[in-house]
TrEMBL record:
Record has Hydrolase as a keyword: yes
EC annotation from Swiss-Prot or TrEMBL: 3.1.3.48
InterPro entries: LMW_PTPase (IPR050438), Ptyr_pPase (IPR023485), Ptyr_pPase_sf (IPR036196)
Key words of the record: Hydrolase
GO MF term list: protein tyrosine phosphatase activity
Source organism of the structure: Bacillus sonorensis
A Pfam family hit: LMWPc
Domain Phosphotyrosine protein phosphatase I: from-to ranges: 1-144
Name of this chain's protein: Protein-tyrosine-phosphatase
Taxonomic superkingdom: Bacteria
CDD domains in the cross-refs: LMWPAP (cd16344)
């Protein structure tokens, strides 16, 4: 299964989600490939230093270059998980033929509505809070997928 995480600039939330989910999926021995992209991301931008630091605290390396969302990435993905309702709306608008595989992370995992707060420009503690929220959701996602992929 190919999973694509999407945020705005692909420097904070979606790269953190990609790295955290790779770790969670590895622990569950899931057969998944994971990438991330941003709706307004530059090509080859650097991950936020605080995103790198927040993951380092969990012994997860973040070697990341940003990438814009593209038709190729959408077609590669079996599941596209956005960080906000607005990201989902924009992605579905841009790629109407692929709407059925685009969800917010919270919607797909928990069945509800809600956004992952953007820590961009904030303090390390803001990144840690986002990391912790993502980590919880991504453990749930790994559990959900391990049940359906068996």
């Amino acid at each position: 299964m190919n999973i694509l995480f999407v945020c705005t600039g692909n420097t904070c939330r979606s790269p953190m989600a990609e790295a955290l989910f790779k770790s969670a999926a590895s622990r569950k021995k899931l057969d998944v490939s994971v990438k991330s992209a941003g709706l307004f991301a530059p090509e080859n931008g650097k991950a936020s230093l605080y995103a790198v630091e927040a993951l380092f605290e969990k012994n997860i390396a973040l070697n990341h270059s940003s990438a814009p969302l593209s038709k190729e990435k959408i077609e590669w993905a079996d599941l596209v998980l956005t960080m906000t309702e607005q990201h989902k709306f924009l992605a579905r608008q841009e790629y109407p033929d692929d709407q059925e595989k685009i969800y917010t992370l919270i919607e797909y995992v928990m069945g509800g509505n809600g956004d992952i707060a953007d820590p961009f420009g904030g303090s390390l503690s803001a990144y840690q809070k986002t990391r912790d929220e993502l980590e919880h959701l991504l453990k749930e996602l790994a559990e959900k997928l391990s049940e359906t992929m068996q």
